[in-house]
Amino acid sequence: MTILRSAIFILWFALVTVVLAVGFLPAFALPRAVTVFMARLWVRLNFWGLRVFAGLGFEVRGPVPGKGVLIALKHMSMWETMAIYSVLDDPAIILKRSLTNVPFYGWYLRKARMIAIDREGGAQALRAMAVKARAELDAGRSIAIFPEGTRVKPGAAPDYKSGVAALYGQLGVPCVPVALNSGLFWTGPVGFLKKKGTIVLQFLPAIPPGLPRRDFMRRLEGGIETATGALVAEGRALLAGGA
User: Fold this and answer.
1) Alpha carbon of 155 to those of 5, 126, 241: distances in Å?
2) Cβ distance 220 to 147 under 8 Å?
3) Where are the domains of the chain?
4) How many alpha carbons lie under 13 Å from residue 125 in its C-beta half-sphere?
5) What distance in Å separates the CA atoms of residue 62 and residue 233, rounded to the nearest whole number?
6) Among 10, 149, 216, 235, which is disulfide-ready with 184 (CB 3.0 to 4.6 Å)?
7) Closest residue by Cα to residue 152 from 206, 220, 224, 51
């Protein structure tokens, strides 16, 4: 049944994506707010499909932060890239530049003013990222980043990159860590399988600005990994109980 439910959702996902991507083409000639509306609608419709066709919902724990902060999220699947845009109010998400070259999807990312970075660009890319992030903060948005830079499986050893520390040091704003267990439910080859259950997204206490780099990274990684480990254990217990 999991395969069948997953396949039905994929069809729904494709339908929603094609209809909105084509239907909102005039948004490129309109204010950015139109694209933001479309993106949030896309997420809501797909999450409706997840719940109805795949039996997969989600729960948010902890206080949802407002604007003007740095959000650092654990990354296990595509799910959280969608969820964070739905839960937060118009965040600027830091993502790899190659995504902006994908037809339609990448065009809308650019119109929504996401922050694209070149992973191979070294220090110059980090400086450019910080400049763009500062501009979006000044425009009243929050910045969302995945500190490990790529998706990792539940239980895999963490590999936090330097970009989040660079942003934290240069932006001078609180950093809100985010733990989750999406990789238990959005899984399989290329993320095809959607297991029935409830994904948990947990906002942790903010890390105040101004900490030394080493202290910041220790608090960030320790907080996210400890909370994520607890959520993964909770999710596995629920999956085992429903098997």
Assistant:
1) 26, 28, 20
2) yes
3) 57-242
4) 15
5) 18
6) 235
7) 224
